[in-house]
Amino acid sequence: MKQGDLVIRKSYGGDMLFRIAAFAGREAVLRGMEYRLLADAPVADLQTVRNPDELGQTKQVRIQANESLRRLREELIRQTERAGASPVTSERNQSYFELPGKVLHVDGDANYLKKSMQVYGQLRVPAEGIHCHESQMPELLLRLLPQVRPDIVVITGHDGVLKQREGWQHLGNYKNSLNFVHAVHVAREYERNRDSLVVIAGACQSHFEALLYAGANFASSPGRIMIHALDPVYVAVRTAFTSFRETINMSDVISHTISGMEGVGGIETMGRYRVGIPNLKKSPQNVNIV
Question: What is the CATH code of the structural domain delimited by 69-276?
């Protein structure tokens, strides 16, 4: 058994697929493959998995993720059709162009970041993605926010409640919630208006209340459950394509996530999508100024 191997935990009935991130003596540090969970387990409790698709739960989660993505695409089509039919763009049958909200996605997992950027690309969301350890996120955002100037910032990676400690209210009982809280504070120092900069923060079992009080618009996890790797992305995409004149339909957005209301929650927030006229593709591309 070595770093990078796919494994399950025998004591948990093989309920979740992990990748070994590191070893610490007889313990292994594990990162969830489908869920944003950071865990540790005795090496003796681990079993190597050679074919992940043979695990029923892993296969089911992927099916759910694909279905959520399909529903999200359909909803985005409806949203943009409504925007295109608005009075300002339908007058004289003028065509329009779209300006979805721009995303800055900071992720503690390089593989999840890659998957997330693929989804943004598929759904035409302008996005920049950065991978760094959760502890480095506050410092990184301090530098990146003025450079990127996003409409939406996603702060995510891995988290989890420390098994040997009791109580959900103390931030010290979480593996990375305090790092996420510090990162949210930096985002709110940069932009205090929650409608000007939408902040989506957290991972599996994160301290939901602390993240909201720190200034996040959406956060995980109200029920301290596992959230799917792409749940923060779904929320970001819907935010990017909801009109700046409309409040994001929180119940509808969260219904598109894998984890649902127990996994993601938030507060009333305006969207970040705009349309403009005329269609830039039909405008003169080359202008000579004498």
Answer: 3.40.50.280
